[in-house]
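I'll show a typical protein example:
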Amino acid sequence: MSDLSSDMYYKHSGRMGLAIPAILIIGLPVIAVLSAVYSYIIVYCPVIGYVNILFLGGYVLACGFVLAGLARISKCRSPLILLVLGLVAGLVGLYFCWVFFIHAYARYAGQPLPILPLVLSPVGIWEMAKAINAEGWWGPSGIAQWALVSVEAAVIVGGLALFTMNSIDQEAFCEDCRTWCNSFETMHLTLPEEMATKKLSELNHLELLALDEVDKTTYPRIDAEVLQCGGCKNTQAIRFKKVSQYMEEGQPKEASEAIPGILMQRS
């Protein structure tokens, strides 16, 4: 990171807010529902193979957005608590993925199983999972199938843990008014070539603020977004991102990368 004094950066207070009840009471049931949707798509989708990676990514993103939304609504300012809750949600999601996968696969095979006994039988789920992985169900079997489901498990559990923990990285909270700061204005700044080649973590935030303003159609550029408390108006923070342009199927697209660190200031 840049050589700025650490006290110039915004730091979360570590207070957990209502994150624990919000995620346990609201988040986990929603994760279970999304797990059911994902599992049924996997079983009944006529396209099997690499497309399943897109389904997995969509599932993790959907669950992650739910958890991130609850983290913000519950006013959690503790990345550590969010990491733990993300791990719990990931494990619960993985379990229900297997529950609903077995339920869907049994129905697909013409041997439907009642859902409640499945939910309440982790040992039974484990035994059926071992049998399915040993024989395979759409192609790979044995070690290959175990490798695939292990990767899937790591993506679900690890992905949700990291997504949830990082969901407040670029957010600032006013402890006086007990509210998140909202976007107030955005400055578009030129990005010199010597800065464009640096790693994002090496950029100096005060040097970025000294850059000349440009039109938002300029690429690459730096966007400096000012966040302000809507209550007291005193708490302000500035977050930065590098914005570039690329071509996709002949059409220009915009991509942005968040620059680590948020400058904090109080009027």
Q: What stands out?
A: The chain has two domains: 19-166, 173-266. The chain has eight helices and six strands.
